Write a sequence for this structure.
């Protein structure tokens, strides 16, 4: 069951400048940052709030590490902006299978590794009214990070 907004993914050209905008404008601080080579992104997670189900909500700022990555291609075509939304679930495998059964294309056969050790998959934007949609199961200890 999808229980929360895990994050909103925002594509940007310069991660450091974008982080500084969110800090100076809203007071959001970086909770976690990492490079995900498989996805071709350098990212910063800005935590918005914690929740009782072991997850939280974040803004995920994404700078491509390669022009041919999903975010690199999207930025070249659209410029900066909201790239995807991600729903949190305790069971990404089960929810992905159920959604696949409804005729929506799930992009990965098996969930892959996302931010902070989470397990993620994506739904094709053309099957979701133009919204690239991600499903996320957080790692059990994700809340403990500082
Ligand atoms: C592409 N399209 C999008 C879109 N990306 N529509 C809405 N939102 C997006 N983000 C549209 C294009 O405009 C195009 O429509 C059509 O989809 C095909 O796009 P394409 O440019 O030809 O690119 P493809 O087909 O090679 O790839 C699109 C696809 C890809 C969604 C399959 O981007 C993908 O596999 N995404 C999932 C992985 C991902 O996005 N990773 C980055 C975040 P038209 O009408 O022009 O044909 S990694 C992440 O977020 C991790 C770290 C985490 O959360 O933990």
């Amino acid at each position: 069951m999808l229980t929360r907004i895990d994050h909103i993914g925002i594509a940007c050209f310069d991660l450091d400048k974008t982080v500084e905008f969110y800090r100076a404008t809203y007071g959001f601080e970086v909770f976690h940052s990492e490079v995900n080579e498989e996805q071709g992104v350098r990212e910063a997670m800005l935590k918005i709030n914690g929740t009782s189900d072991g997850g939280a909500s974040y803004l995920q700022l994404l700078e491509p590490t390669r022009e041919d990555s999903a975010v690199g291609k999207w930025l070249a075509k659209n410029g900066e902006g909201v790239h995807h939304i991600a729903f949190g679930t305790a069971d990404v495998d089960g929810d992905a299978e159920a959604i696949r059964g409804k005729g929506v294309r799930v992009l990965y056969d098996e969930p892959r590794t996302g931010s902070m050790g989470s397990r993620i998959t994506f739904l094709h934007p053309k099957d979701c009214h133009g919204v690239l949609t991600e499903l996320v199961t957080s790692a059990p200890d994700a809340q403990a990070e500082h």
